[in-house]
Specification:
By secondary structure, the protein is an all-alpha fold. The chain is globular, with a radius of gyration of 24 Å.
Length: 524
């Protein structure tokens, strides 16, 4: 496990955990009402879009920059980088103005509840958050440049400033501002995060100079790739937002329940997605640029299996003990028991879908590295259409629980198509290793689920008079027993991926011991 992966495995859980804690605080302070529905929809249309667009710049710039450094001199690389930065900043400024001016139309397009007060609040929050789109794009450019040089610490620290701004707005600003204290915190956090990477970028010797060129073939190609990936990202956001759009027509608090459930269940796949995949992306780009496709398919295959190794038990935990987790984390203040039950229903149907979401990450990343943008755009558009149709059909048939069920179904369809496509685009993708390892994961996961089911049932009668302690026991005991059974089964069936992880951890420990011995002061 590389140092870059360790940095990201620390920074990303901190960022996701902090955002998760903020959701817990929001639930306690504001509950699940039309105000939180409005905030979360505006957040999804602006902040989430900005975060996803950051990934678009990352996927566009890093492979091209790796090619630049391998084929051009330093002056040419700097000029092309500045030209690309200028193009993206100008486009993001235009996008910010469009969001600010067109917020009423955008909200109406997304079919928010006919309640005029809720719609008015959503429009105001969306307009207030529109400048964050420009700030996120500026940060994305700096982050992509640093990651291209395999510098991960500065952008990882800077990304923590957005949740820090939310905390500051919630805790430091007057309570009379209500939900708008969160908005102010988000604006300040997204603006300040652009400043942290600047000294490191200057340390690389890069100096920004605006170069506005639209006809340069290299820049045109990068801009075309960026717009294509941005379209994919926007379509992806529509897929994520579809269930919230339909939920806005249900009972008050439905959007908030879906948001709390999605935030909780996507925590693990997002940590893996932005840790393992982000640290591996420069290496994958170099392999593709140097046409080392055998190593490329091996790395993609390994990432897919490692994510499955971790995501299977996480999914089972949410399926078996989702309710006590929700009660322990969210059921405080204005968040009532009925809200917890609604959130848990969403978790039961979201959890399998986020397993598929995490597994498709290596394939999506491989498509971007291999410049399969057209395929990604077409299939993303098809996924949106499938998701919209499933949401409508499942909502009519199953009601509220049909929305997360539709999302999970769409994610598995997307995963199957990506799996078939990767075998076409990447020759030599070893299917037998995937089938062997995932068979072991499935059997081990089944044993884990049975153990957790009986352990949770045994703890159903309250053991103590303290409800918090009972919830902790209902979470800790089944999880510990289940995870122990999962690991035992993996070792019994000799999972290669588990052995790989154990070997890596042991080798790093031995390397640290040898370094400590070598640097230990020698006595006379």
């Amino acid at each position: 496990m590389s140092v870059s992966t360790i940095i990201l495995l620390v920074a990303n859980p901190l960022k996701n955990a902090s955002m998760f804690i903020i959701n817990i605080v929001i639930a306690a302070v504001f509950g699940a009402s039309y105000v939180t529905d409005a905030f979360f929809l505006a957040y999804l249309l602006t902040i989430r879009l900005g975060i996803v667009m950051t990934g678009c710049i990352h996927f566009t710039f890093v492979p091209s920059y790796s090619t630049f450094r391998a084929t051009k001199n330093k002056e040419e690389v700097t000029a092309l980088t500045n030209a690309f930065f200028t193009n993206i900043l100008l486009l993001s400024l235009i996008g910010t103005v469009v969001f600010f001016v067109g917020a009423p139309l955008i909200i109406r397009l997304f079919c928010f509840n006919a309640d005029s007060l809720a719609q008015h609040v959503t429009v105001n929050i969306t307009r207030a958050l529109s400048p964050t789109l420009f700030f996120f794009m500026a940060f994305a450019l700096l982050q992509a440049l640093l990651i291209s040089h395999k510098i991960f610490l500065a952008p990882s620290v800077a990304s923590l400033l957005v949740p820090a701004g939310l905390f500051a707005g919630l805790l430091c600003l007057p309570k009379a501002l209500g939900i708008y204290s969160l908005v102010i915190g988000l604006i300040l956090g997204s603006a300040v995060q652009c400043l942290v990477p600047l000294p490191v970028v200057r340390g690389l010797g890069h100096r920004f100079k605006a170069i506005l060129t639209w006809k340069d073939p290299v820049i045109s190609g990068m801009r075309r790739d960026a717009l294509g990936i941005a379209l994919i990202a926007i379509l992806g956001q529509i897929v994520i937002a579809t269930d919230r759009i339909f939920a806005s027509r249900l009972a008050e608090g439905s959007v908030s329940a879906l948001t709390y459930a999605a935030t909780l269940t996507r925590l693990a796949p997002f940590v893996l997605y932005f840790s393992l995949l982000t640290s591996a992306f420069p290496t994958m780009s170099e392999m593709a640029a140097q046409r080392r496709f055998n190593e490329f398919q091996t790395l993609t295959n390994q990432l897919f299996r490692l994510i499955g190794l971790v995501m299977v038990p996480v999914t089972i935990v949410f399926l078996c003990i989702g309710l006590p987790i929700v009660q322990l984390l969210f059921q405080h203040g204005k968040f009532e028991h009925q809200d917890a039950l609604l959130t848990n229903i969403a978790i039961q149907y979201y959890a399998p879908g986020f397993l598929a979401f995490g597994l498709q990450g290596p394939f999506v990343q491989a498509f971007f590295v291999l410049k399969k943008i057209r395929f990604s755009v077409i299939w993303s558009l098809a996924t949106v259409i499938i998701t919209l149709g499933l949401n409508y059909l499942f909502l009519m048939r199953y009601g509220f629980k049909g929305l997360p069920l539709a999302y999970s179904t769409a994610m598995y369809v997307h995963l199957m198509v990506c799996f078939m496509a990767i075998r076409v685009f990447v020759k030599g993708f070893r299917l037998e290793r995937v089938l062997r390892e995932f068979s072991i994961f499935a059997i081990s996961g089944g044993v884990m689920a049975i153990i957790m089911y009986f352990a949770y049932g045994w703890l159903q009668p309250p053991i103590t008079s303290r409800e918090t302690l009972n919830l902790l026991l209902r979470i800790a005991v089944p999880s510990t027993c289940g995870l122990g059974a999962y690991v035992a089964c993996l070792r019994l069936f000799r999972s290669h991926d588990l052995e790989f992880l154990v070997t890596k951890i042991r080798s790093r420990g031995k390397a640290r011991d040898q370094k400590a011995i070598a640097t230990w002061p020698q006595s006379g």
